[in-house]
């Protein structure tokens, strides 16, 4: 078994801004696992919020010497490196077995899922223009997390009066700001608020009225973090780059649902290869947010299909 990792850069269709900064390209790591004449592929997006860089994630991937199994990857921490390797091994297993990933996982054949489309953080007038341009989309996600969010939220609702709106504060609010905004979120028909408080300060959510469902993102990584969410959150955002791959993501979905949480399936800004395994986890989710490829100006050679039905499962030529 041979494992190789390469850096790939995909230009974004436009500047993408959240409360932590802006970017014009998606920098990803592509992992290739070769064994017995078959090749499996995986992708990860190292995330600075979790102390990940292209360099240290590459080093971690290259520290793994084959042969290795998905179970054997649990010597690595949950995160981007394990994600790319895990997904590449799933793809490799599919090609060896001549089966699709959902068959190997014992799941029904996946169907398209309506996905959110993310509006970049900008001045209210620009966000209203973005919303109007995408008002045909059934689900819009707004990046917020600043002291001036009320004007932005009003602007987006004016631009897309019929779309369902979810809000991602990216840890940018305090408990006081969230409490002040909550009634307005209800008034404007917001369906979900993602990570309103910093992960280290989210105990303030305990006992707080939550008129709009609150989703854990930075506070939720893999199954080991689930116990820390009790009393704070209603929804768990599952991202493969946080769980450390599809294997753990499927376990987390099952565990979260068993404990009464609803599930959101999200992504970093990456290509169709990164989104492909997540389409399995997204089946029946409360919210699917796999719009990474929609934000790109360029994608993989065999990209995912997005249409009025949503994001479709991958072709075998792409993954799984």
Overall SS class: alpha/beta
Shape: globular
- Helical amount: 25-40%
Number of strands: 13
Rg, nearest Å: 19 Å
Strand order of the largest sheet: 4-5-6-7-8-9-10-11
Kindly state the mean pLDDT as a whole number? 95
Biggest sheet statistics? 8 strands, parallel
Query: Treating each run of at least 4 consecutive H or I residues as one helix, how many helices?
Result: 10
The secondary-structure element order is EEEHHHEHEHEHEEEHHEHHEEE
> Could you list the spans in which at least 5 consecutive residues all have pLDDT below 50?
none
Query: What percent of residues are in strands?
Result: 15-25%
Distance between the termini: 18 Å
Describe this structure in words.
The chain has helices at residues 54-62, 80-97, 101-104, 124-133, 149-159, 175-187, 240-243, 246-258, 272-275, 278-281, and strands at 2-18, 21-35, 38-44, 117-119, 139-143, 164-168, 190-194, 214-216, 235-238, 262-265, 287-288, 306-307, 310-311. With 320 residues, the protein is an alpha/beta fold. It has an eight-stranded parallel sheet with strand order 4-5-6-7-8-9-10-11. Strands 1-2-3 form a three-stranded antiparallel sheet. Strand 1 and strand 2 (21-35) form a beta hairpin. Helix 1 crosses helix 2 and helix 4 (124-133) packs parallel to helix 5 (149-159). The chain is globular. The two termini are 18 Å apart.
């Amino acid at each position: 078994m041979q494992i190789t990792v390469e850096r790939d850069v995909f230009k974004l269709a436009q500047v993408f801004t959240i409360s932590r900064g802006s970017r014009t390209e998606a920098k990803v790591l592509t992992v290739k696992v070769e064994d017995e004449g078959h090749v499996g592929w995986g992708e990860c997006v190292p995330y600075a919020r979790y102390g990940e860089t292209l360099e240290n994630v590459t080093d971690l991937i290259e520290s793994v010497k084959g042969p290795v199994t998905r179970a054997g990857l649990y010597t690595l921490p949950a995160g981007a490196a394990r994600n790319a390797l895990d997904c590449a091994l799933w793809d490799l297993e599919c090609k060896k077995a001549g089966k699709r990933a959902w068959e190997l996982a014992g799941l029904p054949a996946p169907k398209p899922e309506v996905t959110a489309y993310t509006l970049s953080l900008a001045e209210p007038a620009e966000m209203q223009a973005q919303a109007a341009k995408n008002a045909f989309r059934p689900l819009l996600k707004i990046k917020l997390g600043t002291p001036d969010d009320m004007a932005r939220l009003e602007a987006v609702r004016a631009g897309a009066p019929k779309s369902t709106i979810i809000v991602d504060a990216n840890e940018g609010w305090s408990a006081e700001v969230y409490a002040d905004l909550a009634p307005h979120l209800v008034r404007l028909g917001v369906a979900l608020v993602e990570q309103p408080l910093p992960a280290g300060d989210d105990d303030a959510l305990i006992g707080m009225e939550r008129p709009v469902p609150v989703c854990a993102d930075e506070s939720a990584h893999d199954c080991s973090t689930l116990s820390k969410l009790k009393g704070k959150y209603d929804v768990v955002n599952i991202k493969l780059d946080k769980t450390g791959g599809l294997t753990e993501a499927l376990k987390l979905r099952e565990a979260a649902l068993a404990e009464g949480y609803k599930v959101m399936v999200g992504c970093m800004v990456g290509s169709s290869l990164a989104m492909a395994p997540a389409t399995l986890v997204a089946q029946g989710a409360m919210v699917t947010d796999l719009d990474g490829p929609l934000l790109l100006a360029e994608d993989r050679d065999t990209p995912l299909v997005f249409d009025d039905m949503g994001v479709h499962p991958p072709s075998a030529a792409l993954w799984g």
